[in-house]
Amino acid sequence: MTEAQARHIVLAARPQGKPQLTDFRLEDTAIPTPRAGQVLLRVQYLSLDPYMRGRMDDRKSYATPVPLGGVMDGESVATVIASHHPGYAEGDIVLAQTGWRTHALSDRADLRQLDPAVAPVTTGLGVLGMPGFTAYGGLRVIGKPAPGETVVVAAASGPVGSLVGQLAQLAGARAVGIAGSAEKCAFVQDDLRFDAAVNHRAADFPAHLAAACPNGIDVYFENVGGAIWQAVLPLLNQGARVPVCGLIAQYNGVGQGDGTDGLPATMRAILSKRLTLRGFLYHECAEAHYPAFLREVGAGIATGRIRYREDIVDGLEQAPAAFLGLLEGRNFGKVIVRVDA
Ligand SMILES: NC(=O)c1ccc[n+]([C@@H]2O[C@H](COP(=O)([O-])OP(=O)(O)OC[C@H]3O[C@@H](n4cnc5c(N)ncnc54)[C@H](OP(=O)(O)O)[C@@H]3O)[C@@H](O)[C@H]2O)c1
Predict the structure, then answer these.
(1) Ligand 1 pocket check for 333: Cβ under 6 Å
(2) Which is the most buried residue in 33, 62, 157, 256, by most CB within 10 A?
(3) Nearest-CA neighbor of 237 among 185, 193, 173?
(4) Residue 48 near ligand 1, beta carbon < 6 Å
(5) Largest Cα–Cα distance of the chain, in whole Å?
(6) Which SS3 state, helix, strand or coil, does residue 289 take?
(7) Beta pairing partners, 314
(8) 291-322 burial, b if ≥16 CB within 10 A, otherwise e?
(9) How many CB atoms within 10 Å of residue 248?
(10) DSSP per-residue codes, 107-139
(11) How far apart are CA 206 and CA 200, in angstroms?
């Protein structure tokens, strides 16, 4: 890449099941020129998130798929390097929907200014950004943990799960995390200070989960689906709440993803236990809750009560491999690509 060139990554092919590196293509392109009302951004950090797997498929969803040959969607921390907009000056650092690019134009609608003095700017992609707000909104609006209740969350070392457990504890509940390795479980229990952590890849995982939840489960924050849901279902208490946030075990789309079919048992439990399961998208409660989220979680980070972990890889060209790792659990923490920092 020369000084006069930008780069981006496009969707080269629609994956059949598990995505491959050949489903992506890195391309050189000209650095775009901003018009009146626009700013030119240079991406510092690109966020990689599970929802991007859905955008690679051409099927009906709440979001439009990425077209073949189109630049992959994604949110970034970026620096304003030229501004033709009165609200922004060169050097401003913003959150922006740039996609997987080194440079992008924006007319402001998608920008949020970041203040590096408040928190490290990468937190705008994780604990203080969309994933963090997902945890906050799902618990506030649906989970509503009460003191003494048990809250369980899977993908517990990731950006959504790690905040779910910590917020549950701040509400006086007991937090149990489920994660995919002994090392991740140690992080969840020792660093994040959950009350317990259970490895879903260990033999006899359902029995270990039951032992970690002697009083059953009052809130199960669903991030994964599949075999983990099967283990959680019998432990749900009367009146349990299940914010259905994500189903990453099923994102590669082949049947139930991992070969389990929990639907009949799920439907029986919803009826007999009078469960509240509610799907949600983080932006539905943004107007009512976003300012309080930034205030409360920002304060928690500043005092050290709320902790987070980032998994940073270097170079836009590493984005496809890092994304495939995220879908297989090889990431450990919020996945961020350092594009130009
Ligand atoms: N509803 C919304 O508005 C919204 C917004 C943001 C995110 N989400 C959803 O929230 C969930 C967590 O997202 P995140 O950003 O915090 O990402 P994340 O935790 O970094 O997600 C990746 C992790 O998921 C786990 N995982 C992947 N495949 C799995 C499988 N087959 N079985 C069990 N665990 C598996 C792995 O952790 P382990 O190794 O620990 O298993 C992996 O490290 C995702 O489902 C995402 O789609 C929803």
Answers:
(1) no
(2) 157
(3) 173
(4) no
(5) 64
(6) helix
(7) 338
(8) eebbeebbebbeeeebebbbbebeebeebbeb
(9) 22
(10) -STT-EE--TTTS-GGGGGTTTSHHHHHHHHHI
(11) 8
Q: State residue 277 phi and psi, 5-degree precision.
A: -110, 130
Q: Would strands 236-244 and 276-279 be described as parallel, antiparallel, or unpaired?
A: parallel
Q: Is 105 helix (H, G, I), strand (E, B) or coil?
A: strand
Structure confidence at residue 217 (pLDDT): 98
CA 137 to ligand 1: nearest atom: 3
Q: Is the pLDDT of residue 256 over 60?
A: no
Residue 99 clears pLDDT 60, i.e. is over it: yes
What global pTM score does this model have? 0.94
CA distances from 76 to 173, 295, 311 (A): 34, 21, 15
pLDDT band at 250 (very low <50, low <70, confident <90, very high): confident
Question: What whole-number distance in Å separates Cα of residue 281 and Cα of residue 286?
Answer: 10
What mean pLDDT, rounded, does the chain reach? 94
Q: What percent of the chain is modeled with pLDDT above 70?
A: 97
pLDDT of residue 60: 78
pLDDT score, position 274:
84
**What are the beta bridge partners of residue 277?**
242
Backbone phi and psi for residue 100, each to the nearest 5 degrees, phi listed first:
-80, 80
> Could you tell me the distance, in angstroms and rounded to a whole number, from the CA of residue 190 to the centre of ligand 1?
21
Tokens at 120, concatenated: 């490290």
Tokens of 212: 């970690």
What is the length of the chain? 341
CA 275 – CA 269 distance, rounded (Å): 7
* pLDDT beyond 60 at 255: no
